[in-house]
Amino acid sequence: MENQLRVFRVFLASPSDLGEERRVAREIVDELNLICSKETDLRIELLGWEDTLPGVGRPQALINADLDKADLFLGCLWQKMGSPSGTHGKTGFEEEFDRALARNQNAGTPEMWLFIKEVDAARTSDPGEQLRKVLEFRKKQEEAKQLLFKEFKNVASWRELLRSLLLRRLFREIGNQPIIAKEEQAKGSARTQEQVTDSEAVPKSPSKPGPAFAFLADLIEEAARKVRTKELLGFDRTGALPAASTARLLLFAATNYDWNWQHIEFGAHEINSIYLHREAAPLTGLERIFLLRTILLDTFSIKPGWYWIYKWKVPIGIWLPYLALNDSDESMRVAAVQLANRLAFPLNKGAKTARPIIKILKDEKPAVRIAGLAFLGLHGVARDEAAIRELLADQDKEVRIAAERSLRLLLLRISPEAELQRSIRNRDNFDDDLLEALKAGVKQISNDCLIEATSDASGALRTFAARELFLRGALTDELARRFVHDDSRGVRESGYRFLAANGAALDFTEVKNALKGSYLSNEPSWNKGDPVVVIQAALERLPANELAKKLIAFNDESVIAIRVIGSKLQRENLDVIRELLGGQLDELFKQAKSVQSSEKSPHLLPPLLSLWGPSDPLEAAKGEIETAALEILADKPTAESRAVFLRHLSTDSSKSDQLIASLRGLAKVGLADDRAKLLPFLSSKSEAIEWEASNAYLALSPTIVAAANDLLASPTKTKVWCIVSQALKTSDTAIWKVLEKLLLNEDEDIRRMACYFAVKTQTKKQLTALLNKHLTKGWYYYNVVVTIDRALYAPKDLAALFLSDEEKWAARWD
Fold first, then answer.
1. What DSSP character marks residue 99?
2. How much of the chain is helix, strand and coil, in % rounded to 5?
3. What gap in Å lies between CA 425 and CA 448, rounded to an integer?
4. Best CA proximity match to 646, nearest among 703, 702, 581, 707
5. CA-to-CA distance for 756 and 505, rounded, in angstroms?
6. What's the CA gap between 458 and 426, in Å, rounded?
7. How many Å apart are CA 391 and CA 388, to the nearest integer?
8. How far apart are CA 441 and CA 435, in angstroms?
9. Which residue, 45, 249, 412, 522, shows the most beta carbons closer than 10 Å to its own?
10. How many helices (H) and strands (E) in the chain?
C-alpha cells in the first residue's frame, strides 16, 4: 500500500511590487517538489491570492480561508504595503500578517517567515506613503521582537535565500522534527548563546515535537533520576543506563555540541557503538545530519551509517547540494562537492542564477572554489564557461591556477579542435588528465590539426597525435620518417610501426636503441617505446623460412619470432611447438653455441639479468624461447600438451616464467591426479606462481568448495582472491559458506575480498541477515560493517559508486 501524500502548505503574502519574487518562489517550490516526489511522500503546496477560487463575499475573506490552512506564512515586502482589504483600514498584507501571527501565538502554527527587500538609500529620504508604511512596519517588528526577519538585495539573492531555507525546512518536515533556530553552525570556536545575534538566525516558530524528541525527553528524565539517586555516580554497572540508552545520549550530546558550538565528528569506535544499537530508538533530523557528515568525512571506510540516512528518506538530491552550499565547515563543503563530482551530480543545472555551482564558485574558502572548478572541468557545459573565466582573476593564486585548468578541460571537451589549436599557439603543456579530455573528443579533431600537433613543444601531445594518426591510417612515409627522429620515444614508436607495417627495411638494432629507455628510469608514458611491437610487425611479413632463421639465431628477436609463429598456428598444428620443447630446441641451441659468439649477439637483456638468471645471452634467449613456446601452448591448450606442462614444473627459480606458463596450461588440460604435483607451488613466495598454482588446483578439483577448504587451511591474499575470482566467474554461490568465516580474518584485505564476494552475490535479505549476524559476534571488524551498510542502505547512485570503487580495488589482484 502506498504511503499517503503529506502536504506542507506555504502561504505567500506580498504586495504587487514583488511579482518577480512571487514567480521565483513558485519555480523553487516546483523544483523542490520534483526532487521530493521521487524519494519521499512530502509535497509543498504554495498558496497565495492567485490560488483563491472565485466566490461570494469579501475577496480578502476568501484569501484568509487559504491562509488558515497554511503551515508556513511567508511574508515579503519592498516599497509597497499593499491595497486596502476592506476592513479596519488595513491592507491585504497587514490583515494576512496579523491573522497568521495571532494564530501562531495561540496555536503555535503557522511558522512566520518575514523577508524585506532592500530599498535604495535615496528613496528612504523621501519615501512616500507606501514606503513610509513599510518602514514603519519594519521598525514596529524590530521593536516588538516577536519574530526574526531576513533582508535580500535582489531577485537572485531572493532565489538563493529562499531555496536554502526551504531546503532546510524540508529536512525537518521529512524527519518530523521541530525547528532549530540557526542560520549557521559554529565555525570552530565555542560561542555562548548571548553571542548569537538575530542576524544569524532563521525565521522560526514553535513546532510540535516528533517521536524522537519524546523518546529523548523520557531518556533524559530517566538519566536525571539516576543522577539524583546517585545510581550513576559509582564505577560499577549496578543501576547503569542500558548500553543502547547510553549510546543514544552520546549521539544527542555530540549533535548538540556540533550543531551549536563547534564542529566535531564521531570517531570510529563511537559511531560503531551507536550502530550496534541502530534500531533501538528514533533519531532527530539534526542527529541524522550529524551522522551523515561523519560518514561523508570518513576517509578510511571504517564508519558505517547509511542505515540512518535510508530510514530518514531525505533524497540525495536535497542533502548533497545542501551540504555543498550551506554547511558551515569548509571540509564538509569540499567533500560534498567532490562527491558530487564523482557522482556526476548536476550541480550546474537549473535556472541561470539558481544553479548550485554558481554559489560554490563564490564560496569564501578557496578550497571550495577549487573543488567547484574541478567539478566543471569534468562535467561543465558551454554555459559554465563564463563562471570559470570570472575566477581567472581570483585573488587566490591556487584558485586562478585551478580556473585555468578547468577552463582548458571544459574547452577540450566541448570544442576540442579549437582549443587544441589555441593550446598549440600558446605552447601550453599537457598532462594525463588534459590528454584524457582531448581523447574524449578526438573524433572531432581533423588530421591536419593532429599533424600540426606533432610539431608541438609538448612531448605528451606529440605522442598522442602521432599515435592517433597511426591508428587512423593517416600517416605518410614522409611523416613516419620524421617521427623516428623525434625526441619522444612514443612518437618514434608510431613512426617505426608505420614503416614496419608497410614493408620498409629496418635495422632492428637501430629500432632497439631508439625505443629502449633506461632500465630503472621512471619515464612518463608518452616517453616510452616498445621495440617488440615494431619488430613483431616486421617479422609478421616474413615468409616461414626467414622466420625459422630468426628463431635459431638465439637472440631476443628469436623470442619475437616464435611468438609470430605461434600466432599463425592453429590449435591442431601445435606439434611443431611441442617438438621444439621436446628436445629439438636443445639440439638447435648446441649448434648455435658452436658457431656464434655471445659477445656479438645483439640483445635487449639488461646487464642486471645476471643477478637472477643466465648471464650468457644465448642461454637467456633459449630460456625466453622456451617460455614463449609454453605460453603458446597454454593459450591454445590441447590434451597432447599436458605432458609438456608437467615436464616443466620446476622449482628452479631461474625458470619461474616457464613454470607460470606450465601451471596456466595445466589448469586447462590437467587431470585431478595432477593436483599432488601442484602442492609445492601453493606456498611459493612468488605471488604469480602461487596464483597460477591455486588457480590450477581449483580447476582440477571435483568441486570449488572442496578445493577452497584445502587452500584456506593456510589462507593468503593470493589464494583468497583466486577463489573469489573463480567463484564469481562461474557464479558459484555455494562457496560463500567457506568464505564467510574470512569476515573475521585479521588481514584487512582478506576481509575485504570476502565482503566483495558477498556484495556481488548475496541478496538484500541475505546481506541484512549477514550484517546482523556479524554484529552479534563478541568482536567484529569495522570495514565489514561499512561495506555491507553501504551495499544495503546507501542511495542507489552512491551504492553503485561504492561498488565501482570495490571493483577497481579488486581488479588490482587479477
1. H
2. 65, 5, 30
3. 15
4. 581
5. 52
6. 11
7. 6
8. 10
9. 412
10. 41, 5
Rounded CA separation 739/712 (Å): 9
Task: Work out the end-to-end distance of the chain between its first and last CA atoms, rounded to an integer number of angstroms.
Answer: 46
Cβ–Cβ < 8 Å for 329, 359: no
Closest CA to 725 of 747, 701, 746, 704: 704
Angle, helices 764-775 vs 748-761, to 10°: value is: 150
Rounded to the nearest 5°, which phi and psi values hold at 727?
Answer: -65, -35
Instruction: Compute the distance between CA of residue 311 and CA of residue 297 in angstroms, rounded to an integer.
Output: 20
Q: How far is CA 463 from CA 60, 169, 267, 428, 440, in A?
A: 75, 55, 48, 15, 16
Tell me: the pLDDT tens digits for 556-589?
899 999 999 998 888 777 888 898 888 888 888 8
Decide if 130 contacts 81 (C-beta within 8 A).
yes
Backbone torsions φ then ψ of 179, nearest 5 degrees: -80, 135
Q: In 3D, which of 262, 85, 97, 127 has the Cα closest to residue 189?
A: 262
Q: How confident is the model at residue 312 (pLDDT cuts 50, 70, 90)?
A: confident
The listed range with the strongest mean pLDDT (93-102, 321-330, 687-696) is 687-696
**Secondary structure (DSSP) of 323-390:** HHHH-S-HHHHHHHHHHHHHHT--TT-SSTTT-HHHHHHT-SSHHHHHHHHHHHHHH--GGGHHHHHH
The CA–CA distances, whole Å, from 777 to 265, 441, 744 equal 26, 53, 10
How far, in Å, CA of 725 to CA of 722, rounded? Answer: 5
Q: Which residues does residue 116 pair with via DSSP β-bridges, in sequence order? A: 77, 151
Nine-digit cell string for 782: 569495522
Q: Which of 90, 113, 95, 82 is nearest to 16 (CA)?
A: 82
Residue pair 514/489 in contact (Cβ under 8 Å)? The answer is: yes
Distance CA 188, CA 781 (A): 32
Q: Could you identify the residue written with the cell 567539478?
A: 375
User: How confident is the model over 22-36, as pLDDT tens digits?
Assistant: 999 998 898 888 777
* CA–CA distance, 255 with 245 (Å, rounded to integer): 15
pLDDT in tens, 636-674: 989 999 999 999 999 888 899 999 999 999 999 999 999
Compute, in degrees rounded to 10, the torsion defined by CA atoms 532, 533, 538, 539: 60
Is residue 530 helix, strand or coil? coil
Look at strands 111-117 and 42-47 and give their pairing.
unpaired
72-77: strand order across its sheet: 42-47, 6-13, 72-77, 111-117, 149-152
pLDDT at 117: 93
All cell numbers assigned to 405: 585548468
Q: Is the pLDDT confidence value at 522 over 90? A: no
Each residue's pLDDT tens digit, 581-613:
888 888 888 888 777 554 454 444 444 344 445
pLDDT-based confidence at 360, cuts 50/70/90? very high
Find residue 77's DSSP bridge partners. Answer: 116
Amino acid identity of residue 448, one-letter, is D
Rounded distance, CA 53 to CA 75, Å? 21
Query: CA 695 to CA 707: how far, in whole Å?
Result: 10
Residue with cell 596464483: 691
Q: How far apart are CA 634 and CA 578, in angstroms?
A: 11
Other Cβ atoms within 10 Å of 187 Cβ, number: 11
Cα 723 to its chain centre, rounded Å, is 28
Label the pairing between strands 42-47 and 6-13: parallel
Residue keyed to cell 504595503:
81
